[in-house]
């Protein structure tokens, strides 16, 4: 077959491919943003900012550790072992808002020349301040705004530094306020720390979000088995490939509630090009990759796109053909075939 079409749509926004380089320390400065674009990402999201000095200071207190599948620390050599997880504290962009906005504008111009996007990201602390910043972002000519109201560190950070919202009514109200403030596309990023992420997604869409991103990383706590102290000295946000089925579950649930055309962006769990396919099969129209690129370097983008393309070639499909295929085949437990005593097949040998 001819080369597959990688194009996807997030609402009305066309992306040349579904891989979005998510916001993080690796895309806070110009060189990293340019590297993400040059590696082929359909979009890069510039490291998030808000109006507080507390959010900036939080990054000066940060720490990171890479863990293998049995929770042993690994070297930070940009070659993480298969199955590795990232445990970390984080904070917000270090530039002044004016310098940060100038960077976003310049990089979005470069991105446009590559048929891509550089996306502004706000993690509000105070909604009214956030709305003012959103207006300035639109006035500067930035084409897309992510509003992250699901940052995992929200309740651990310095009080007033960042917002973490779990209430569906509040999600709708916040989204509606941003929708009223600006006309550019708004992507609302939601927390993973909720038992009703699908309800949060529905509320964000009802408030006017052009897309919802599911789901932010979870908070974790891990004792160091040697020192018996907390790793990193505290709690931290944790993400790894183990999170992919959890994210897929909530994407499929949100798709079921909002309908097959729902613009859902996946994040938390993707490490490979096949993971991009898995997320799209669950109902996502695009995929943010953050920890994989942060810990593995920007070549991860190129390699994931190559593997994703090879998968589409093998299946004789285009990227958009994948969206929701698996989610729409989910059946209830009671619809499964009766298999009397099948469970016994899985018992361990009880012999001594």
Topology:
Blueprint: E1 8-10, E2 13-15, E3 19-21, H1 30-38, E4 43-45, H2 53-59, E5 63-67, E6 73-74, E7 85-89, H3 97-113, E8 117-122, H4 127-139, E9 145-148, H5 168-181, E10 186-189, H6 197-206, E11 211-214, E12 218-220, E13 236-239, H7 244-258, E14 264-267, H8 273-282, E15 286-289, H9 291-296, H10 299-315
Parallel strand pairs: 3-4, 3-15, 4-8, 8-9, 9-10, 10-11, 11-14, 14-15
Antiparallel strand pairs: 1-2, 5-6, 5-7, 7-13, 12-13
How would you summarize what this structure contains?
With 352 residues, the protein is an alpha/beta fold.
CATH architecture identity: Alpha-Beta Barrel
What percentage of the residues does DSSP assign to strands (E)? 15-25%
CATH topology grouping = TIM Barrel
Number of helices: 10
CATH superfamily: Aldolase class I
Kindly describe this structure.
- This protein has 352 residues and is an alpha/beta fold.
- It has a single domain, classed as TIM Barrel.
- It has helices spanning 30-38, 53-59, 97-113, 127-139, 168-181, 197-206, 244-258, 273-282, 291-296, 299-315; strands spanning 8-10, 13-15, 19-21, 43-45, 63-67, 73-74, 85-89, 117-122, 145-148, 186-189, 211-214, 218-220, 236-239, 264-267, 286-289.
- The strands form 3 sheets. The chain has an 8-stranded parallel beta barrel with strand order 3-4-8-9-10-11-14-15, surrounded by 8 helices. Strands 6-5-7-13-12 form a 5-stranded antiparallel β-sheet, with no helix packed on it. A two-stranded antiparallel ribbon has the order 1-2.
- The termini are far apart.
């Amino acid at each position: 077959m001819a080369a597959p079409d990688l194009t996807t749509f997030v609402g009305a926004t066309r992306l040349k491919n579904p891989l979005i380089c998510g916001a993080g320390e690796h895309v806070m400065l110009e060189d990293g943003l340019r590297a993400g674009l040059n590696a082929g990402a359909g979009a890069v999201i510039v490291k998030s900012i808000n109006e507080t000095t507390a959010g900036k200071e939080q990054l000066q207190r940060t720490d990171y550790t890479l863990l293998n599948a049995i929770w042993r620390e690994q070297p930070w050599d940009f070659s993480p072992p298969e199955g590795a997880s990232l445990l970390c504290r984080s904070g917000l962009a270090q530039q002044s808002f004016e310098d940060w906005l100038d960077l976003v504008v310049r990089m979005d111009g470069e991105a446009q020349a590559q048929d891509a996007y550089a996306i502004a990201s706000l993690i509000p602390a105070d909604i009214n301040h956030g709305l003012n910043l959103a207006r300035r972002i639109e006035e500067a000519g930035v084409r897309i705004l992510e509003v992250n109201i699901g940052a995992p560190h929200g309740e651990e950070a310095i009080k007033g530094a960042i917002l973490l919202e779990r209430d569906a009514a509040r999600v709708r109200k916040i989204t509606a306020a941003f929708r009223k403030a600006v006309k550019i596309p708004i992507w609302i990023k939601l927390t993973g720390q909720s038992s009703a992420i699908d309800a949060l997604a529905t509320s964000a869409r009802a408030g006017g979000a052009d897309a919802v991103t599911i789901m932010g990383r979870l908070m974790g706590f891990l004792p160091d088995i040697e020192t018996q102290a907390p790793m990193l000295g505290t709690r931290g946000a944790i993400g790894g490939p183990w999170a992919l089925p959890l994210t897929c579950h909530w994407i499929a649930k949100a798709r079921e509630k909002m309908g097959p055309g729902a613009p859902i962006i996946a994040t938390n769990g993707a490490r490979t090009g096949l993971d991009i396919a898995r997320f799209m099969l669950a109902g996502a129209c695009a995929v943010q990759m953050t920890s994989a690129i942060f810990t593995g370097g920007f070549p991860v983008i190129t390699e994931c796109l190559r593997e994703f393309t090879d998968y589409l070639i093998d299946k004789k499909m285009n990227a958009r053909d994948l969206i929701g295929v698996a989610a729409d085949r989910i059946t209830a437990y009671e619809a499964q075939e009766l298999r009397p005593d099948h469970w016994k097949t899985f018992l361990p040998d009880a012999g001594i």
